[in-house]
Amino acid sequence: MERQVALVTGGSGGIGAAVAVALAAAGASVGVNYRSDPEGAAAVVAEIEQLGGSAVALQADASREDQVRSMFRALLDRFGRLDVLVANAGIQQDAAFAEMTLEQWRAVLDVNLTGQFLCAREAVRIFDRQGRDPGRSCAIGKIICVSSVHEVIPWAGHANYAASKGGVMLMMKSLAQEVAPRGIRVNGIAPGAIQTEINRAAWETQEALQSLLKLIPYGRIGRPEDVARAAVWLASDASDYVTGTSLFVDCGMALYPGFRDNG
Ligand code: BGC
After folding, report:
1. How far apart are CA 87 and CA 63, in angstroms?
2. Which residue's CA is the nearest one to ligand 1's atom 12?
3. Structure confidence by residue, pLDDT tens digits, 82-96
4. Average of per-residue pLDDT values in the chain
5. What pLDDT was estimated at residue 138?
6. pLDDT of 143 strictly over 90
7. Model confidence band, residue 263 (pLDDT cutoffs 50, 70, 90)
8. Which residues does residue 32 pair with via DSSP β-bridges, in sequence order?
């Protein structure tokens, strides 16, 4: 990934932070976007600099058009180009369907789906302007949409989240179809249960963890680095013949493990 520039949204913690560090370790310069955790983003930038890499923290709410545009401008001011977008910023606001407020519905759709649209649109515009540079990478640009196993697994009590991730999947595939002739690759990563703040309640007690593990055939909760390695592969020329694909990084969660011994 040397001489390439990546932007990771939601890069101040969890999966995004691991992706930012892994891309930097592979040689990319990295924009680390955050919305409300400047300390987290600064720690990721410091970790990258310790590795001998370059990174910059960029504040922006991914669901706000004006903020997204200034974030991309700031990234170009600092590094001069963009090769990889990892659209990762995401939130959960869970509620039973009958109790879900319009604010909860909108907040999740705005960040998880509209935010990815706004960032991917900026990235495509920049890739088109930059054009081809085969010495740097085969594609003119690469977009990775971080989705979830819930792009296909229905999730009671999380209808806003599952709807947003199903939307991300078809936005990703439609965009991949549209821009492949221009040399842009667009793929998704659908993580399963990865141990981060967003799902703390699902792993912080032994009881919760044991019940979660019943849904994961391989028998362990995921780590952010599990997803980061997949992101580096999808961002690099090693995956140059791959576009429009959702890569499930879930150790079998989407294999309907409940059907293992009955059904
Ligand atoms: C959600 C987590 C959940 C996982 C598996 C993720 O997309 O953000 O809260 O543990 O899916 O259900």
Report:
1. 11
2. 193
3. 999 999 999 999 999
4. 98
5. 98
6. yes
7. confident
8. 8, 57
pTM for this model (two decimals) = 0.98
Q: Which domains does the chain have, with CATH numbers?
A: 5-259 (3.40.50.720)
Mark whether 161 is an active-site residue: yes
Q: Is 183 left (phi over 0), alpha (psi -120 to 50) or beta?
A: left
- Closest ligand 1 atom to 198 CA: 9
Which of 149, 215, 248, when mutated, tests ligand 1's pocket best, judged by the most ligand atoms within 8 Å of its CB?
149
Q: Is 113 in the pocket of ligand 1 (CB under 6 A)?
A: no
Q: Quote helix, strand, coil % in the chain, to nearest 5.
A: 50, 15, 35
Which DSSP letter does residue 30 get? E
Contact 116, 171 (CB under 8 A): yes
Residue-wise pLDDT for 93-115, tens only, equals: 999 999 999 999 999 999 999 99
Positive or negative: CA dihedral 21, 22, 24, 30: negative
Q: How many other β-carbons are positioned within 10 Å of the β-carbon of residue 227?
A: 26
167: Cβ contacts below 8 Å, ≥ 6 apart: 109, 112, 113
- DSSP reduced 3-state for 153: coil
Task: Measure the CA–CA gap between 17 and 13, rounded to whole angstroms.
Answer: 5
Residue 124's pLDDT is what? 98
